[in-house]
Amino acid sequence: MPVLVNGGLGMATIGLAEFLSSIISEPGASGHEDKVAAVVQKGMSGLFDEARTDALGNLIMLKRGIGRAPHPRVMLAAHMDEIGLMVTKIEDQGCLRVTQIGGIDRRILPGLEVVVHGRRRLPGVVGAKPPHVQDPGEREKSVKWEDLYVDVGLTGDEARELVRVGDIITFAQTPIELQGRFMAGKTMDDRAGVGVLFECLRILRDMRHHADVYCVATVQEEVGVRGAITGAYGIVPDVGIAIDVGFGDQSSVPEYETISMDKGPGIAISPAVHPAVFERLKTIARELEIAHQTDPSPHPGGTDAFAIQVTRGGIPTGLVSIPLRYMHTAVETVCLTDVERAGRLLAEFIVRLDKKYVEGLKCF
Amino acid sequence: MLLKTLTEAFGVSGQEQEVAAILREQVSPYCDKVETDALGNLIAIKNGNEKGPKVMLSAHMDEIGLMVMYIENSGTLRFKPIGGVDPRVLVSKSVYVGKDRVPGVIGAKPIHLQKREEADKPFDIDGLFIDIGAKDKDEAEKLVKPGDGIIFATKYQDIGTSRAKAKAFDDRVGCAVLARLLMMDKQWNFTLQGVFTAQEEVGGRGAQVASYSLEPDIAIAFEGTTASDVPGSKEHLYSTSLGKGPALTHADASFVADPRIVKRLMEVADKNGIPYQMRELTTGGTDAGRIHLVREGIPAVVVSVPTRYIHSPASIIDKCDFENAIKLMAAFLDSIEERGLPF
Amino acid sequence: MVEAFGPAGNESRIRDVIRKEVEGLVDEVTVDAMGNLIAIRRGQGPRVMIAAHMDEIGVIVTHIDDEGFVRFSNMGGISPFMLIGQRVIFDNGTIGAFGMEKLDDMKDLKLNKMFIDIGAKDGASAKEKVSIGDIGAFHREAHFQGDRVIAKSLDNRAGCAVLVQALKELAGREIPNQVYAVFTVQEELGLRGAKTAAYGINPDVGFAVDVTGTGDTPEAPTMAVKLGEGPTIKVKDRVVLTHPRVRRFMTETAEKNGIPYQLEILEGGGTDTGPIHLTREGVPSGAISVPTRYIHTPSEMADMNDMKNAVKLFVAILEAKLDEAIL
């Protein structure tokens, strides 16, 4: 039975909206997450006992459990990397050719404002041909990657001084607060998940738990769940739960492909999820009347859970999804209440973790 | 009868418990230890000389199938495929939904109401749905839920002189081969690690973690493989033919078989007069693809029973190929006892 | 090296060739379960794994018909258009020519519409020369012309040559690192050999040496790499994003030693660095590539100076204190 300890640890932390806003504003494309890792660590300071980064850059924040050793080990993973662009070539007249990091729908790019991370941050625009000079019929087809470029307003020589092949480019969108506790911005996929880690540890501050909690802000999920592969290998948890985003209901997408906004996180059922982890999360959500939905998937891929489950000899894994609209655009939209619900659900899951449950997971 | 029980069992990728329970009941009396792991693999060990090699034999329990994604207000079910299902084989088939096997049918628009051009294009999954006879969403929700697995309702049947028809010969025929070997009266002097794996059809996931834990010295995976010896197929694209014996793989999309093991298998087959053929296709992947790259590498091969219409609701094997696969493996295991590993 | 036989899945001959080259240069030479050749220079300091794949693309025999024509499939990335008019050679020296079925439209050309003709009279005599499962490679001689070389399998015998040469230059010298030079197998089939080799070695730092494309031919796809302007330091490919700290160390080392280099983003390929950097808990890794035109054809082209500079760069990297620089 979880026991609430009054008073907390005395350290005032910022609120969820502020934390989320600060981390989605920080650039951190896959493979280049060190700066956003620092902001995450700072924003969550006081909520964990120790932190380290591993060889790939995963930020691992450990909050120890109480009671006799050995403690059950739980790993929560949310990825902090974002999709972005990378400079492939600097043209003679100063424009930058680009390739994608992670899966970008190139149709969102023409006219998009970006930031080029060269010797210093340079504002830029993805070039778009005005209608006046287009060939007839050009409008019928979406622009090809080879025709895209980023204009930073410099000449070729100036550009070569400040920018190199391999420099990262991120979307420039700043967070926007919408009605109903909805918030839009780039990289809600999956910094909203990092927000869940924040919420979860914030709640656990006032609760007693036996389990050691490894909150991992993973890297390079968007290019093949790479951080989760090495992160889980190092931690070897007894149970791992990935927190990622799911398709929130939106017009132009059939209802059967989505989960609803502001109706709570999705609890995933898929080959990547251990049935007893799914059941436990559902049961807790039902008992505590935390709004939630079932999020089915016929294949195990697409999130860090894919990698965690097949680490070493196999790890019982779960997946919680935050409903999100307009995935992989610069205006991804989530409901903060869903983030809070997910944080609470995971905190309650953690305080109920004991050796018996964890042993039971080893048998299917 | 083993092939019947196994092929009719419910076990889509990630939901193999029923198949594991059947196999556990069959093989437990013959094994020293039987357990499951975090992915649902069923691991059956027959201990041998601790100093001797560890030989892993595997077969996957999961079958391709479907998953309930959403229940419409009208009570019909939206679904998506689990594993490589050709959407063209789905329309007009009967299914069972969920572990309680609620019967359903995959319906589509009647041809009378279709425009002529429509019939030239296959049904796309969004145009298909499952009808369990519920009159609305409430009634359907009492019986099924999103996440439920769906299997084809095909019954096992002996046909022809030595052939059989069923769903999921890929890879319940492999499971039957492995179960029969474990249940043999013979006890080899080395440790046999029988692994009935989970989730092969979605990426060899069970095999990967099981071989990490078991650390075998050699691995043989049993599969059902494509036999395309049918009209409309050119001979060089048959891959395997029914009745010509179990098939040995040189290479497929997921691995190159260890040639030393393949050579030993061919020697053993020739010596004992067991027919065999080579699998000619080089596409497709198996558990061996995952197993052979675990830790520092595990020498591995695949032995398959040719199966027509693999990955469709009704496939066909020749039971002689099945029996010969068992004979070949038993003789191969004898050769390990006599001569050691082939490397 | 380029003329030696060693298609993916059948690397024993090239392994023997390389083994003879490295035997005297290191403390120990072993072959692991997959067939990787591992040459170990023991000593002080962090364990550095350098991988160069020794396999080349090839074909595998799938069927021999009654008339003696041999059907095949690919081992590694082969475009059917690269086979027209080419020759293949098998382990036992049998040589064949590629032929194709009649087509209405050349766009329909696929590997399963082609066959290999070894000049056999019928199926029975063909089966005396080749069997199902035999793996063959392109058959083509190499030409050196000025600074340039035209040959098959510069991918990746150029990389192997660079690694062997680096070992030669370091022989007898003391360096602050232990070196595991791994000539890997089956890279062309999915970076397979490197995965198990890296697990076994468990290095502190990893590097791969391979080839990469160029963007300097007529109407080439966009790429900032040119032949002859130096080996490349890899930034990104399909399977790895080089850690910024590793990349910075490599570029600084090149600049400090006056070695020309280029930065590489390879859109359409991956190398052994992929599996190496994801081994166990992760390994900081980088890659150096030799710019090569016409990759995966029988007439690849590279610049000898790029290779010489690649050797220089590896030597400079291995002479540095990698535990301070990277770890």
Condensed summary:
Chain B has 343 residues and is an alpha+beta fold. Chain B has 8 helices and 19 strands.
Q: Can you offer a commentary on this structure?
A:
The complex is a heterotrimer of chains A (about 375), B (about 350) and C (about 325). Chain A has helices spanning about 15-25, 35-45, 155-160, 190-205, 225-235, 275-285, 305-310, 335-350, 355-360; strands at about 50-55, 60-65, 75-80, 85-90, 95-100, 115, 120-125, 150, 170, 175, 180-185, 210-220, 240-245, 265-270, 295, 315-325, 330-335. Chain A is an alpha+beta fold. Chain A folds into two domains: about 15-80 and about 185-360, Zn peptidases (Aminopeptidase), CATH 3.40.630.10; about 85-170, Peptidase M42, domain 2 (Elongation Factor Tu (Ef-tu), domain 3, Beta Barrel). In chain A, the strands form three sheets. Chain A has an eight-stranded mixed β-sheet with strand order 1-2-12-3-13-16-14-15, sandwiched between helices. A six-stranded antiparallel β-sheet of chain A has the order 5-4-9-6-7-8. The two termini of chain A are about 25 Å apart. Residues about 1-10 of chain A have low confidence and may be disordered. Chain B is an alpha+beta fold. Chain B has helices spanning about 1-10, 15-25, 135-140, 170-180, 205-215, 260-270, 285-290, 320-340; strands at about 35, 40-45, 55-60, 65-70, 75-80, 95, 100-105, 130, 150, 155-160, 165, 190-195, 220-225, 245-250, 250, 255, 275-280, 300-305, 315-320. In chain B, the strands form four sheets. Chain B has an eight-stranded mixed β-sheet with strand order 1-2-12-3-13-18-14-17, sandwiched between helices. A six-stranded antiparallel β-sheet of chain B has the order 5-4-9-6-7-8. In chain B, helix 1 crosses helix 4, helix 4 (about 170-180) packs across helix 8 (about 320-340) and helix 6 packs across helix 8. The radius of gyration of chain B is 21 Å and the shape is globular. Chain C has eight helices and 17 strands. In chain C, helix 3 packs across helix 7 (about 305-320). The two termini of chain C are about 35 Å apart. Chain C folds into two domains: about 10-55 and about 150-325, 3-Layer(aba) Sandwich (Aminopeptidase); about 60-140, Elongation Factor Tu (Ef-tu), domain 3 (Beta Barrel), CATH 2.40.30.40. Chain C has helices at about 10-20, 125-130, 155-170, 190-200, 245-255, 275, 305-320, 320-325; strands spanning about 30, 35-40, 45-55, 60-65, 70-75, 85-90, 95-100, 115, 135-140, 145, 150, 180-185, 205-210, 230-235, 260-265, 285-295, 300-305.
